[in-house]
Amino acid sequence: MDQKRTRSKQIILRSTQKEYEIIQKKVEKSKLKQNDYLLNCALQKDIIVIEGLKELLLELVREGKNLNQISRVLNQNENLDLTEITKLKEKLIDLWAAAEEILKEVKK
């Protein structure tokens, strides 16, 4: 083994054939050695974990379905209960506020 070697730890990365080909193209394009390219990718990017994002997205999907149902009723010229629209509007305002809070955390 090379006495000058300073990186003694190994990390094994598994990928699909397609992922491997994409990585290889990016390595080629970078003009770096594969090891240097992968280290740069891993060490120079921050990973941000956003608590509550999954729940917020699920709620947005639910409310989007409600909005579609209301749109369908309106497009069919059927009577629509105004309280349903008001509830949906309030819910969407609350969801937007939650999304803004999450974005403020990410920007810190």
What do you see in this structure?
This protein is mostly helical. Helices cover 68% and strands 0% of the residues. It is built from four helices and no strands. The protein is elongated. The chain starts with 16 loop residues before the first helix and ends with a helix. The mean pLDDT is 84.
H/E element sequence: HHHH
The residue fraction in helices comes out at 55-70%
The chain-level mean pLDDT equals 84
- Please give the number of β-strands: 0
Shape: elongated
Straight-line N-to-C gap: 45 Å
Radius of gyration: 25 Å
Structural class: mainly alpha
Low-confidence stretches: none
β-strand amount: under 5%
Count of DSSP-assigned helices? 4
| Largest beta-sheet details | none
Structure summary:
It contains four helices and no strands. By secondary structure, the chain is mostly helical.
Protein traits:
single chain, about 110 residues, mainly alpha, 4 helices, elongated
Strand-helix topology:
Layout: H1 17-30, H2 34-43, H3 53-75, H4 82-107
Helix pairs in contact: 3-4
